[in-house]
Design a protein that fits this description.
four-stranded antiparallel beta sheet; single chain; globular
């Protein structure tokens, strides 16, 4: 067993990108990290500790308790944005922009 990255609060989902890096959802901090295999972590979407609902690029995008993710064949990530009751699309790698709502149910 080898630890790749320490210090994340409530990592909730992980997927490997086509370029070998990892995407990790940090649920309680409302952000998405890109982690290299040598352990360097960069927030690529959302702002640590700031909850909200905004589509945008990098730190302009806001999430509310993201809980999981999966990738399509091109490496785009679909993120379960639990607090906003939405599925969000993170576009790989073009500026890491969060696209428009894929679908949002009213409960």
């Amino acid at each position: 067993v080898k630890t790749l990255c320490r210090g994340l609060k409530y990592p909730a989902g992980i997927a490997q990108l086509p370029d070998g890096y990892l995407l990790v959802v940090e649920s309680s901090s409302h952000c998405i990290h890109r982690i290299s295999l040598d352990g360097r972590s960069t927030v690529i979407a959302g702002t640590q500790g700031v909850s909200g609902y905004i589509d945008g690029t990098g730190g302009q995008a806001l999430f509310s308790t993201p809980t999981n993710l999966c990738l399509d064949r091109e490496g785009n990530a679909y993120i379960v944005d639990y607090g906003n009751r939405a599925i969000r699309k993170l576009i790989f790698p073009a500026k890491w922009s969060v696209g428009k709502r894929e679908h949002r149910h009213q409960f």
